[in-house]
């Protein structure tokens, strides 16, 4: 493209960056971001979200966090997906206090957390042993105009079973059915494992 005089734009670079991130070559993808800046092509929110997601999946949370101020310096404001990516990475790497702080920052910045945001937070709370807090957030979803989905119920049931609360898990399964949300095989498997662990 370049040899034929076609200039690469942000979309072209995003495709290249995404391709580099898939096989976990985030350092090379980051070099492409530097190249973009040298070519006076401004990285957009997709560029940063893609890089951040790959760093998080690789467990390189600090590198992902470093992108946060960098993107803001380039005039790109984080969106809900940006916050979700970073919160998920923090929760999965046992950095729950930082994830909670980030969640609050998202709310303070007038960004409405979506169901994905709450699923990430609830799962992180269970990982961090904060069962009561996870239960409270789940109970408050309807007041925020959000309906739990199969993923939400799966997280809750799995969290209850891991905490030895199989009776609560079974009650939640019934509530799920009553509300017209069909359980999948994963949920049944989780409850079966939970009961077997109680034997």
UniProtKB/TrEMBL annotation:
The keyword Repeat applies. PROSITE patterns: PPR (PS51375). GO terms for cellular component: chloroplast. It holds the Pfam family PPR_2. PPR repeats lie at residues 9-43, 44-78, 79-113, 114-148, 149-183. It comes from the Eukaryota. InterPro entries: PPR_rpt (IPR002885), TPR-like_helical_dom_sf (IPR011990). Keywords: Repeat. PANTHER family: PENTATRICOPEPTIDE REPEAT-CONTAINING PROTEIN GUN1, CHLOROPLASTIC (PTHR47936:SF1), PPR_LONG DOMAIN-CONTAINING PROTEIN (PTHR47936). Belongs to the PPR family. P subfamily. NCBIfam families: PPR. This is Pentatricopeptide repeat-containing protein. It comes from Pyrus ussuriensis x Pyrus communis.
């Amino acid at each position: 493209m370049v040899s034929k005089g076609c200039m690469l734009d942000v979309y072209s670079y995003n495709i290249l960056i995404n391709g580099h991130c898939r096989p976990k070559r985030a350092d090379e993808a980051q070099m492409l971001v530097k190249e973009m800046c040298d070519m006076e092509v401004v990285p957009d929110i997709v560029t940063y979200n893609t890089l951040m997601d790959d760093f998080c999946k690789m467990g390189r949370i600090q590198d992902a966090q470093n992108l946060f101020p960098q993107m803001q310096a380039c005039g790109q404001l984080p969106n809900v997906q940006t916050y979700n990516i970073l919160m998920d990475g923090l929760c999965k790497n046992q950095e729950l206090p930082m994830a909670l702080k980030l969640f609050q920052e998202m709310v303070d910045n007038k960004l409405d957390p979506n169901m994905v945001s709450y699923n990430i937070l609830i799962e992180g709370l269970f990982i961090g042993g904060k069962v009561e807090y996870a239960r409270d957030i789940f109970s408050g979803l309807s007041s925020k105009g959000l309906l739990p989905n199969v993923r939400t119920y799966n997280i809750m049931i799995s969290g209850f079973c891991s905490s030895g609360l199989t009776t609560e898990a079974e009650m939640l399964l019934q509530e799920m059915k009553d509300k017209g949300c069909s359980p999948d095989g994963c949920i049944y498997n989780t409850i079966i494992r939970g009961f077997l662990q109680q034997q």
